[in-house]
Design a protein that fits this description.
Number of helices: 9
Number of strands: 7
CATH superfamily: NAD(P)-binding Rossmann-like Domain
Order of helices and strands: HEHEHEHEHEHEHHHE
CATH class: Alpha Beta
Domain Ketoreductase: 12-196
CATH architecture: 3-Layer(aba) Sandwich
Largest sheet: 7 strands, parallel
Family: Belongs to the short-chain dehydrogenases/reductases (SDR) family.
Shape: globular
Radius of gyration: 17 Å
Organism: Yinghuangia aomiensis
Distance between the termini: 37 Å
Protein name: A-factor type gamma-butyrolactone 6-reductase ScbB
Strand content: 15-25%
Keywords: Oxidoreductase
């Protein structure tokens, strides 16, 4: 761990939802390498959260797990209650500097096949949860803090096969824009990152071990390859740092230039 990395977020406390796997895991590990103490929030996979915390601590960083299943009424309150309890060894104020809304679910169904229950579930996790997580964070979030919402390229690309998922990310982008305006007077920046196809467990079934799928996914990006979790984590780390102090209300395309 370099001295420069430690300086970037040294002394900061970050919460990363969905922080135990895939993009969230990469974000948790990168923020920790940059010096932040990271609350790794997870919904169901306790073992994955424990593994992420262990990897961070073995690398010389600080992290702890926070459990709260998203998608139900009251989930944001329960998340912050769990955070308050777990963060006591690291802060005596319950304050937080960085909130990364990364947790999300997808629904691979076109309009004709999507059920009302499926629609409600994807909006509950991808839109309602971040909205109220931020609402509950406001008294805890220090002035000059950072909020980063993980959106998706599906918010700008026509993908009818995942129409509800794309709609949630469009709503999240609008949330980002309005929140940036509201929190600007406190020096809090609010930005989004919109990944394209990323090699994570979510895409493993159709992507990994399938050269044709890999080639097709890579061909969609101007940069000619499939994204990696670290590609997204590095952008989040920039937005969380002081280097991004004059950037707010923006959604950064992180698709590698998909369908330009």
């Amino acid at each position: 761990m370099s001295a420069n990395a430690l300086q970037a977020l040294h002394g900061k406390l970050a919460l990363v939802t969905g922080g135990s796997r895939g993009i969230g895991k990469a974000i948790s590990e990168r923020l920790a390498r940059d010096g932040a103490t990271v609350a790794v929030a997870y919904g169901r996979d306790e073992a994955a959260a424990a593994d992420t915390v262990e990897r961070i601590t073995k690398d010389g960083g600080q992290a702890f797990a926070v459990h709260a299943e998203l998608g139900r009424h009251g989930d944001a309150v329960r998340l912050w209650e769990a955070f308050d309890e777990a963060s006591r060894p690291y802060t005596d104020s319950g304050a937080v500097d960085i909130v990364v809304n990364n947790a999300g679910i997808g629904r691979s169904a076109p309009l004709a096949a999507l059920t009302e229950e499926g629609f409600d579930e994807v909006f509950a996790v991808n839109v309602r949860a971040p909205f109220f997580i931020v609402q509950q964070a406001l008294p805890r979030l220090r002035d000059g803090g950072r909020i980063v919402n993980v959106s998706s390229g599906a918010a700008r690309l026509a993908m009818p096969e995942i129409i509800a998922y794309g709609a949630t990310k469009g709503a999240l982008d609008t949330f980002t824009l309005n929140l940036a305006q509201e929190l600007g007077p406190r020096g809090i920046t609010v930005n989004g990152v919109a990944p394209g196809i990323v090699d994570t467990d979510v895409n493993a079934a159709w992507l990994r071990g399938n050269p044709e799928a890999q080639a097709h996914a890579a061909s969609m990006a101007a940069l000619g390859r499939v994204g990696q979790p670290e590609d997204i984590a590095d952008i989040v780390a920039f937005l969380a740092s002081d280097d991004a102090r004059w950037v707010t209300g923006r959604v950064i395309d992180a698709t590698g230039g998909a369908r330009l």
